[in-house]
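User: Hey, quick favor. My workstation is busy. Could you predict this chain's structure for me?
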Amino acid sequence: MVKVRPARADEAEALTGLVMRSKAYWGYDAGFLAACAAELRIRAADVAARRVVVAEDERGAVLGLASLEGAPPHAVLGLLFVEPAAIGRGVGRLLYRDALRRAVALGVRRLAIDSDPHAAGFYRAMGARAAADGGADQGRGGRAEPYALVPFEAAPAPLAAWAREWTGGGRAVHLGNVAEFNAQFADATLDGEQRPAHHYACLAAFYSPDPAVLVLPRAVPRGWTDLVGRELGWSEVEVYDGLVERGPGLLDAVRARPALAARLTGAGLPLVPWGLTRPFGELTGRPWRPGQLRYESKSAAHELFGRILAEGGHPGIRLPAQWRAATRRAAVRLLSDRARAGKSTVLKSEHGVGGSGTTVVTPERVRAAGGARALVRRLPRCPLLVEEYVEGPAREDGPRDLTYDGFVGADGRVHEVGGAVMEVRDGCYAGATVGPGVVPEWAEKPLTAFGGAVGRELAAGGYRGWFDVDFVADGGRRLAPTETNLRLTGPSVAFMVAARLDALRGAGHLVRIVDRVELGARLPEAQLDELCADLARECARLGAVFVPAIPTGAFEPSPWLGVLVAAHSREVLDAAEARVRAAARAVDALFGPPAPL
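Assistant: No problem, here it is.
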C-alpha cells in the first residue's frame, strides 16, 4: 500500500538523488543532466518552503516525490518525480492527485505545470490541459527543442457542494435495487424477467462519488471494479454480487442473509438505493410511505406540472395537453381523431422507464398500421395516456431532450445538481451529457427554475431522495415537462462521475453516459477486461477518461456495453466516444479468423 506523507528536511539529499535518477531514466546525456543539477537540487530548507511530499510503500521505501510551490490563487507543480523502478505502478498518479487535493485546501485556483517532454502524455492522461498562454518562455527552463518543457495547467476544484450534501461528503453503501424499484409499479411495459434492470443495477457503482460497498443482483467481472476504481480514484470497495439472478428481490435477499444485512446497516455509512421501496425501508428501519412515489405516475406528474404553472412565474415552460384513456376503445378514438386532424400523438403507460411504454404516433404511422385500432392492439395491455406531441426545434437550433436533476435532503431542503442534454432515439432514452455549456443558455434559467419548483413540491409532499424532471424543447425555445423520476437515473450517474473527476483531475469535465454500445461479439470475462483496459489507455492518450458503466451486457447473446466517457472539451469527448464505438464494433477481430476445417 503506497501512501503520501510530508517529506523531512534530513531527506533532502536522498530526494535529490531520486530526482536525478528519474530524470536520467529518459535517456538524457550526462552534459544535459549536469546542466539540470542545480535547478533540480532539493535543499533541506526547500522541503518545507516548497511543500514537498513523498510517496512511500509499506516498508517505508520512498518511491516518488512532488512539490507544490507558490501562493494562492496560483501555484506551480514544481517537481513530480518517480523512482525508475516504480514507474508504471500508479505512484505518479497518486502524487498528482494529492497535489490537486492540497492545492484545493490552500485555495489555489490555477496550477501551472512545466512538464518534461517525456511526461507530457502522463499529464494529458491525468486531465491537465495545454496552457492557454503557451507557458513562460517554454517553461521555467526556457530551453530549445528537444529539451523544451511542455506547459500545462489544471484548475483544482473541491468536490461539488451538492455531492458533499448527498452523502455527507463521505463514502456510502450502494444498493442496486433497480428491478425491485420497477417491480412495485407492475407496469405491463416492463420486462417480467427483469434482465435489463439487473444489468442497469451495475450503475450502483456510481450512486455517489466514492462508494465503500456495492451490492448487486448479478455477478460482475472482478476486473471491472478494479478498473473503475483506478480511473475514479476509489479506496478499496467491498463488492457483494450474484445475490439475485432473476426476479426483483435484491434487498429481500440481503435481509435473508443476517450477517450481510448487519454488515451493511452497522457500518455507520449512508445506504443509497436506486429508488425507495418497501424492502429498503424494512432493511434500514425507515418508515415506508408509498405515497412518496405518487409522482412516478406520468398522469400525476402532469397534474403537478399544471398546478405549478397555474401559479405563474415560468414563462419559458409550456405544458402539453394530456388525456387519460379509460379504455382501449377511448384511446383508439382519441388517436383516430388526432390523426385525421394531421396531429402526431404520444401514447404513454403510467410507469414505463427509459422510454418503455412510450410510443410516438404520426398520422402516417396510423395509416401504415391499418388504423388506430390495429396500432393500439399491438401495444402492451395497460392503461394508456394520450398526450399532445410537441414539435421540436430544427436540428441546428439546439437539443431536443433535456433533464434537470436535484435531490431533497433529509431535512427537506432541495439541492440543485444541474441540467443535462439527453440522447433519445425512437422515444427511448439512450444516454446523456452533463457539464459546462451543455445546456444552451436560453434553456438554463427556465429549466432550473421549474426543476427547483418541482423539487419544492416533492419535499412538501414528504419525498426525500433524488429526482429529475424531463423536458422536450419546442420550436419556439420553450420547454415542455414530460415526467418526473423519483430515483437515480443515467444522467445522475454522469453528474456523480463529473463531480468525482473534477476533484481528481481539475474542474470543467464534460461526462457522457451511453446506455448501449453494441459489441461485435460476445466476450468472455478475460477478453472484456482486456478490451476495457485498452480503451482506458487509448482514451487517456486523448486526454479523456473511459469507464465501463455496465459490463454484464457483454455476456448477452446480443452483446453490448454501457459506457461513460469524460473530457475537458467537446471535441475530445466526441473523439473518445468514436474510439470506443469503433473498438466495440471490431471486437470480433479479437478472436481471429475461423480455423480451417
